[in-house]
């Protein structure tokens, strides 16, 4: 980024100012899970590997994993399943060298769907709700 400074005709000075962004542009994509499963899929591993790269670039960054299910199954079962998914996600990141103290997780079960499926949903709509989202809690200044 540059900022221009005006001067008089007699004294023209060009000033170039470099601005460091307060927060780097970081776009974390959610990962998705298969129905009734908590294992990390190949596509999820691809997204998580990108997150590992970002966290290695910003060693002060801390991330919270928020995991969700679709509405099929009991509320209690879905809460347990989302906890398993959250743990699987965190364990994958730890296995790639991210320190455990930089990660936290929470399973929300079916309480926060992207797609409201109370009436009728397609398989694709249910799949959108089976996800882990990533929240940046702290990062390098």
Automatic annotation (TrEMBL):
It is found in: Cell outer membrane. The keyword Electron transport does not apply. GO terms for cellular component: cell outer membrane. Coiled coil: none annotated. Gene3D superfamilies: OmpA-like domain. InterPro entries: Bact_OuterMem_StrucFunc, OMP_bac, OmpA-like, OmpA-like_sf. Keywords: Cell outer membrane, Membrane. It comes from the Bacteria. Residues 20-140 form the OmpA-like domain. This is Outer membrane protein OmpA. It comes from Pustulibacterium marinum.
């Amino acid at each position: 980024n540059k900022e221009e400074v005006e001067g008089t005709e007699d004294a023209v000075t060009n000033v170039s100012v470099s601005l460091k962004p307060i927060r780097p542009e970081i776009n974390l994509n959610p990962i998705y899970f298969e129905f009734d499963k908590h294992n990390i899929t190949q596509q999820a591993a691809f997204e998580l590997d990108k997150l590992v790269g970002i966290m290695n670039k910003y060693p002060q960054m801390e991330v919270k994993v928020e995991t969700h299910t679709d509405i099929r199954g009991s509320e209690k079962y879905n809460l347990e399943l989302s906890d398993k998914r959250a743990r699987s996600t965190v364990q994958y990141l730890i296995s790639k060298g991210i320190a455990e103290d930089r990660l936290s997780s929470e399973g929300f079960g079916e309480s926060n769907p992207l797609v409201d499926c109370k009436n009728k949903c397609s398989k694709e709509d249910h799949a959108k709700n089976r996800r882990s989202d990533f929240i940046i809690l702290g990062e390098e200044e």
